[in-house]
Amino acid sequence: MPQTTKVLILGAGFAGIHVAMKLERLFHGDSNVEITLVSRDNFVLFTPMLHEVAASDLDMTAIVNPVRKMLRRTQFIASDVESINLEKKQVTVSHGLCRHKHAIDYDHLVLALGSVTNFFGLEGLEARALTMKSLEDATKLRSRMLAHLEEADPPCSEVPRASLLTLVVAGGGFAGVETVGGMYDFMMHAIRSYPNLKPEMVRMVLVHPGKYLLPELGEQLGRYTQEKLAKRGIEVRNGVRVTSISDEGVVLSDGSFISTMFVVWTAGTSPSPQVSCLPCQKHGGRVITQPTFELEEWPGVWALGDCASVPDGKGGFHPPTAQHALRQAQTLGGNIAAAIKGTQKKEFSFSTIGQLATIGRRVGVARIFGFQFSGFLAWWMWRTVYLSKLPHWEKRVHVALGWTFDLLFSKDTVQYVSFRTPGSIMPLADSVSVSDRVDTRHGVLTGAEKI
């Protein structure tokens, strides 16, 4: 009787789920290959549209797909990864209501655990700032904006309105720009329902350490983005970074102080802690792979997506973006099949097609095949491209209907999450524990991921 080969995939982001789907196609009907996928959540999050949930443009169910619906023969386990033992070829996971632990053996291990938010050890940041890395983050951000409006509206409020209605976003990359644009649109719409508040009371600040926004797109589009945001009333602070956060506000690197109780951190990510501690070569915390995605020191261990540094053949590494992760998954799945069958493995080679971002109010920027686009056309291209990338036609219909309803009807301003805590009027961030903030589900970056 042939021996069963066990393939274990950690992480159900774009990278992990597509490796599993590729293996299912290659080993369809082959019972001697056992595929197991482990992920914290039982859904795949379409991260490029995360900011639209925060801005109430889309319902959160529109951008998630159930893992079990996407896979046919892969065994799925909704678990947290506790530890990875490469020597024993064993992964320890915890799951269930009681969080019981057990070990899973493997012959081939795929690391697709993605990244977590990096707070760089800045004082007060992790305890007080909101993030934009998960579906939970987006829903909390939306509810937090409404909570501040509710607190600021009554004349009897003991909290200064200026502090409540000053919103600071740190990070001028794709995630930060799209988040601040969506937040501004939502606040300008929602504030109409509060008779004691006026739009001019809202102060939106985007803090970016670089000379211009969206450095991935180049200076011309970056400055165009800043100009559009500034015309809408969003204050952009270039060349400075957040150095510390307190209950009173934010201190910037130029010594200035912004009085605020609302900070969103989008200025850094780092690989999953489970990957960072592995005994193998790393680059910036990411495991260094061969061009075939296999770890040189550990045959049978593969890595891709946001937790891996994959050589690009030019002396550097492929960027950890969605478009690369999707194509890496196809090549890696084929290479695992080649390793099992004893055939030739392929080296990964791919060049970025393009990058797109929305900046709110039906305006976008894009660079595709070296050509630059901006304004309504770029925004339309963003929506068209990502609508086509959504898994399954029913989700595409769901999103298309959501966008249509957003044009026809007012935004929903129901506050789903409460931030009231004993002895505190409005904490800068809720009481989520540090462990709850660790998001090892996604194999790609959040925000405006690339085509």
From TrEMBL:
Boundaries of every FAD/NAD(P)-binding domain copy:
6-329
Listed InterPro entries: FAD/NAD-bd_sf (IPR036188), FAD/NAD-binding_dom (IPR023753), NDH-2 (IPR045024), NDH2-like_C (IPR054585)
Q: Report the EC code(s) recorded for this entry.
A: 1.6.5.9
MF terms from GO for this chain are:
NADH dehydrogenase (quinone) (non-electrogenic) activity
- Record's Pfam families? NDH2_C (PF22366), Pyr_redox_2 (PF07992)
Q: Tell me the domain of life.
A: Bacteria
Species per Swiss-Prot/TrEMBL record: Acidisarcina polymorpha
**SUPFAM superfamilies in the record:** FAD/NAD(P)-binding domain
| Zinc-finger keyword on record | no
Catalytic reaction list? a quinone + NADH + H(+) = a quinol + NAD(+)
Q: PANTHER family this protein is in?
A: EXTERNAL NADH-UBIQUINONE OXIDOREDUCTASE 1, MITOCHONDRIAL-RELATED, NADH DEHYDROGENASE
Q: What protein name is recorded for this chain?
A: NADH:ubiquinone reductase (non-electrogenic)
Q: What class of enzyme is it?
A: oxidoreductase
Every copy of the External alternative NADH-ubiquinone oxidoreductase-like C-terminal domain together lies at 354-412
- Family indicated by similarity: Belongs to the NADH dehydrogenase family.
Q: Which UniProt keywords apply?
A: FAD, Flavoprotein, NAD, Oxidoreductase, Transit peptide
